[in-house]
# Entry
Amino acid sequence: KKTGVCRQIESMASISMWLLLPLMLLIPQGTTASNLGRPSIRKLLAIQIRSGYEPIRPGVVCSSCLISFFHTNFVRPNNEKVSLSELKVRTREYPASARDKIRMLQFGVRAKTSFENYTESIGSSYASRYTYIGTAIRINDRVHVGMLSADIGAYLVQKYRVFNKQECWRVLWILWKKCKNKQVRERRGFTANELNNIKMALQSEAMRALNSSLIQIHD
Ligand SMILES: *[C@@H]1O[C@H](CO)[C@@H](O)[C@H](O)[C@H]1NC(C)=O
Ligand SMILES: *[C@@H]1O[C@H](CO)[C@@H](O)[C@H](O)[C@H]1NC(C)=O
# Structure
């Protein structure tokens, strides 16, 4: 009895297999390959953002910490599909290392690449950081590029060295010398550890800014 049921199921399975086969042949192979298995540019950018993001440590951003506040000069999303013949012209404005990596895609079918870099400057009262991340994927004869760039600034808190200084004066001409300790505040630069915390906070803020434009990238 059992074997009968099994055989029935088996034959039903093979019948449905034969019914499905023409349907499977109808789906163009190119569509399944490039749409279903295609890596998503936005997802890849999200991974790049996440790998560069770490919450800012406590004690770094506040009016008496190291950074009083951030501001965003700009966040720019770049999203384009470029044919191989136009690749050279259309990538002219990209940063050099990104441009070279994108152009390499013309030598491989369905290859992908990613790039990122930044420049920063830290002064005594202001710091800034320009950051970009990007991913490019070749799909057939076109290259899809997604890139996010941001320029952010941070207002820095002046640090002081506080120490006691002895102040003396003479009483009754030269008979007595009187002294008193006085607290003195002297401006100082950032320590290596403070600079490191500022740099890490700039990176976190840059990633947060890039993330805010991720929604504008389409696959
Ligand atoms: C990243 O930027 C720095 C500073 O501008 C530069 O020296 C370096 O070559 C860049 N790296 C890449 C991979 O572009
Ligand atoms: C990026 O944005 C998404 C959606 O708005 C959010 O869930 C995620 O926490 C953000 N990530 C970072 C690093 O800011």
